[in-house]
Backbone:
């Protein structure tokens, strides 16, 4: 019987390119675990603009390639060509449909989604009105129709890294005319997602 040779694990530092929506949480986990990772964050609203997202992510990964750095990507299925981008740069991404799934876990995410929840994180709350106006226009009636067509409430998520964004969350909920509730989330699931992506990248030849 052939012996199984364990994969060679590279000790080179990794670069991570990803969405800035959970910047504080990821930075905390990098420090906690002493991961040898240099993180680079893109704007947290890019999922609203496929062209910008593809261009900025591709450019950021090109830069890491030119530096000779191994990289991982912190994004969900936020672009229809995401997998093609990963293949082009010989990299991997964190596993999960989106950042909320990575933070909460699939079951908790789906349970609230089925009740009609829209998940609000601190960074989005703080930039809510201009972000929506740029993406959907300034007609408040249209914006509210978009949200009411698929959501029944706003759930604002607090993590151990969140500041007090109560006023911003309340204003965001009023803006789209939906009731607001709160949810506390620890970082245990996000930590596993990041650790799995790091291990996957390091175990690749």
Residues:
């Amino acid at each position: 019987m052939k012996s199984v040779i364990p994969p060679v694990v590279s000790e080179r530092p990794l670069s991570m390119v990803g969405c800035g929506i959970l910047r504080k949480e990821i930075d905390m986990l990098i420090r906690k675990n002493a991961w040898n990772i240099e993180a680079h964050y893109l704007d947290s609203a890019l999922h609203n603009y496929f062209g910008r997202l593809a261009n900025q992510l591709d450019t950021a990964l090109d830069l890491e390639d030119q530096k000779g750095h191994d990289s991982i990507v912190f994004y969900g299925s936020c672009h229809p060509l995401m997998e093609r981008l990963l293949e082009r740069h010989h990299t991997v991404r964190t596993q999960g449909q989106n950042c909320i799934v990575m933070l909460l876990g699939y079951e908790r995410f789906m349970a609230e989604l089925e009740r009609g929840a829209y998940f609000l994180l601190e960074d989005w709350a703080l930039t809510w009105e201009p972000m929506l106006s740029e993406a959907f226009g300034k007609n408040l009636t249209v914006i509210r129709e978009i949200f009411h067509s698929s959501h029944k409430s706003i759930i604002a998520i607090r993590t151990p890294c969140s500041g007090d964004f109560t006023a911003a969350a309340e204003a965001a909920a009023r803006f789209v005319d939906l009731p607001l509730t709160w949810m506390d989330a620890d970082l245990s699931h996000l930590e596993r997602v990041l650790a799995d992506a790091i291990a996957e990248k390091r175990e690749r030849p």
